[in-house]
Amino acid sequence: MKTRVYVTLKNGVLDPQGKAIHHALEGLGFTGVNDVRAGKLIELDLDPSVGEADVEAMCRKLLANTVIENFRIERDAAATEARA
Amino acid sequence: MKSAVIVFPGSNCDRDMAVALERVTGVRPAMVWHRETALPAGLDLVAIPGGFSYGDYLRSGALAARSPIMRAVVEAAGRGVAVLGVCNGFQILTEAGLLPGALMRNAGLHFVCRDVALKVESSQSVFTSRYDADDEIVVPVAHHDGNYQADPETLDRLEGEGRVAFRYAGACNGSARDIAGILNETGNVLGMMPHPERAVEDAHGRTDGRRLFEGLVEAIG
After folding, report:
1. Which SS3 state, helix, strand or coil, does residue B201 take?
2. Where along chain A do its domains lie?
3. Interchain pair B107, A14: CB under 8 A
4. What is the DSSP code string of A27-70?
5. Is B87 annotated as catalytic?
6. How would you classify the pairing of strands B82-86 and B45-48?
7. Contact B208, B131 (CB under 8 A)
């Protein structure tokens, strides 16, 4: 089962990469971009036996650094995609 | 002084650290591979060297911090053994939870590789006892992720408890309050982005880093 973990910087944490992307977009002539924040998408292929609590533990122990990052877990990403 | 240098895949300052330690302490450190689960007995100092452990995958230092030897390092730090993390070593210590905060991409996005002036903020630790507070020293930096960040309460606590060991004398990488190196609560763990091991002998061009190692010898044997 496919599970997606989105890791994003917490609000208020300076994001130099997002800033650079923002500048580059402006350089290309795109207007109206107020802010850019860059994050990570981590896809996990999990046995059905792996529970929500296990994925959350993976996030807290390794996938995200909760000092500076938030994470959001999207279970069964394939099914979500099929519905979309 | 009995010391060990931890070696991760992608470490590249491990031998510099070993040479500096041997020159100053007179004793060759043990080189300990990250897959080991125990440190040599009777250690006085563990050094976590600079480099790009695991290619900086996921986050700088994140994977190294979860390697088997780090459990032993955390345990040794808890017993009061001195732990020095330089550059990638500093990143690993924050990821391992031995030091607060995080090291993010440099504010200017550039890899910064040059000599920098540092202000010694505290001489009250086993690492800084051979310096005087307010001393200005020059030590090289070479990093991409040296931008130290923590929440304001943590920063205030570090300052209030005298745990900021070194501060950049001028802007370097965007670090909060120009912090270059910090101590843990008990003062036996130091993480710093600049490389003292690259400034210990005349051939390096500078020797300001030497006093850090001399201080350790004096303080812990």
Report:
1. coil
2. 2-83
3. yes
4. HTT----------EEEEEE--TT--HHHHHHHIIIII--TTTEE
5. yes
6. parallel
7. no
pLDDT tens-place string over residues A9-40? 998 888 888 998 999 999 999 999 999 999 99
Of B106, B108, B149, Cβ closest to residue A13? B149
CB contact under 8 Å between B109 and A63, yes or no, is no
Pick the CATH number of B3-219 from 2.20.25.90, 3.30.70.260, 3.40.50.880, 3.40.920.10: 3.40.50.880
From the candidates B104, B105, B144, B172, which should be mutated to test the interface with A, based on the most A CB atoms within 10 A? B104
Beta-bridge partners for B6: B32
B197 is catalytic: yes
The interface predicted TM-score (ipTM) is 0.84
Looking at the structure, give the CATH architecture of the domain made up of residues A2-83: 2-Layer Sandwich (3.30)
Q: Which of A13, A20, A62 sits opposite B109 (nearest CB)?
A: A20
Cβ-Cβ contacts under 8 Å, A62 against chain B? 58, 62, 66
In the numeric block, which tokens belong to residue B67?
Answer: 């390697």
Confirm if B87 and B51 have CB atoms less than 8 A apart: yes
pTM above 0.90, yes or no: yes
